[in-house]
Structures are given as C-alpha cells and as structure tokens.
C-alpha cells in the first residue's frame, strides 16, 4: 500500500465525530432507518414508546453494519460490492 503524506489526501480538519456522521449518512443512503442508525450510534430515544419497546434491534443493527462494511470495502477497493446478503439461519 502506498504511503500518503498529510497533504496528499486534501482533507480539511476533521474529528472522530465526522467518521460517525459519515457512517450514519452511508447507512441511511443504503436504506436503513434513522431509528436503526440511531441505535447503532447509541442515541437514546426520548419518546414514550421507548419506555415500552425494549427490543434492542440487534439483527437490524448487524445487517446495517454489514452493509456499511460492503459499501466501504467497495469504496476502498474500487470494486462493486456483492449484492449477495447472507441469510439468517
């Protein structure tokens, strides 16, 4: 892998929060709901419904993160990500 100098990337100032924002935006662009993305980001839901709904959305979060992985891998490698999604057992 080639080594980059700081100015080669031509990226302005950024923080780890910008990476969270990018990941959230990519997952939303892949069709995942703001609710699932919010769960991944560990945001709290202040609604009354959240008091009753204790489901953790683990399957949905896993699917979103796996889709994000495929998207980022495709960006890095320049190859289109597989459209094959593993089926749950």
Helix content: 40-55%
Low-confidence stretches: none
The amount of beta strand, in percent, is under 5%
Structural class: mainly alpha
* Broad shape: flat
Mean pLDDT: 87
The helix count comes to 4
Brief summary:
This protein has 89 residues and is mainly alpha-helical. The chain has four helices and no strands.
Tell me what the structure shows.
The protein has 89 residues and is mainly alpha-helical. Helix content is 52%, strand content 0%. It has four helices and no strands. The longest helix is centred in the last third of the chain and has 20 residues, at 58-77. The chain is flat and about 50 Å long.
Feature tags:
52% helix; 4 helices; mainly alpha
Write the layout of secondary structure elements.
Blueprint: H1 16-29, H2 34-40, H3 48-52, H4 58-77
């Amino acid at each position: 892998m080639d080594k980059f100098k700081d100015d080669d990337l031509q990226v302005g100032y950024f923080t780890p929060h910008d990476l969270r924002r990018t990941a959230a935006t990519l997952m939303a662009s892949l069709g995942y709901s703001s609710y699932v993305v919010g769960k991944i980001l560990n945001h709290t839901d202040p609604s009354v419904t959240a008091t009753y709904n204790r489901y953790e959305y683990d399957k949905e979060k896993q699917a979103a993160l796996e889709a994000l992985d495929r998207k980022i891998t495709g960006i890095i490698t320049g190859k289109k990500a597989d459209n094959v999604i593993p089926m749950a057992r």
